[in-house]
Amino acid sequence: MRLPFPQSACVFGQPGISPTSAEYLPMLVLNHILGGGTLTSRLFVQLRERRGLVYSIRTAPETLSQADLLIGRFATENVKTQAAIETIQAEWRRMAQGEILDKEIAAAKSYLKDMLPVSMDGTSAISSRLLAVQRMTQGIDYIQQWRNRIESVEPELVRRTARKVFVTDVLTFAVAGEPNGL
Fold first, then answer.
1. How many CB atoms sit inside 10 A of residue 129's CB?
2. pTM for the complete prediction?
3. Which residue among 26, 72, 81, 86 is least enclosed by CB atoms within 10 Å?
4. Of 155, 164, 165, whose CA–CA distance to 68 is shortest?
């Protein structure tokens, strides 16, 4: 959509994985590596630190009533939009090829193991987590077993899931603004 703004806002994504799938936890590890780890993710490092294309970028799995998605968001100056999209596409290809280092997987697992307990810092957060567990049709011990479940995710399963899930041909971008070159 063409809008007369100095920046373009972009949402991008593709089909994701259901929380009830055996590949969901490896997908969480992959998401953290790609765009879920705020200052450490591949997309943040490539787009913000190395190229100065965006201020922030983030990805997250989204579960809707009729679809499971992996989506991301960023905003940037109109003249930088095309370069940002091309950089995201390049990182998506790397993920699709299973180019994930053991140290990236270990760092993501370490973060994810501690993230759940830390995020439950009040009644609202706790009830929100419990509702999510119920919606995912997980057992009553899901939160208690979180650390063990994340730890049990093997690096080869993460790479295999990446090769299956990341499909560059279906990665879609929606841009609002007046981006140059698009």
1. 17
2. 0.89
3. 86
4. 165
Calpha distance 98→105 (Å, rounded):
12
CB 181 within 8 A of CB 82: yes
State both tokens at 139.
Answer: 């057992």
Mean pLDDT across the stretch 148-165? 96
| DSSP state for residue 2 in the 8-state scheme | B
Q: From 164, 170, 168, select the one nearest 21 (Cα to Cα).
A: 164
Query: What is the DSSP secondary-structure string of 55-104?
Result: S-EEEEEEE-SS-EEEEEEEEEEGGGHHHHHHHHHHHHHHHHTT---HHH
The C-alpha atoms of residue 34 and residue 28 are separated, in whole angstroms, by 10
Residue 149 backbone dihedrals phi, psi, to 5 degrees:
-65, -45
Average pLDDT over residues 63-68: 89
Percent of the chain with pLDDT over 70: 89
Task: Please provide the DSSP assignment of 108-132 as one string.
Answer: HHHHHHHHHHHH--SHHHHHHHHHH
- Write down the pLDDT at residue 146: 80
**Residue with more model confidence, 140 or 168:** 168
Q: Which residues have a Cβ under 8 Å from the Cβ of 155 and sit 6 or more positions away? A: 100, 102, 105
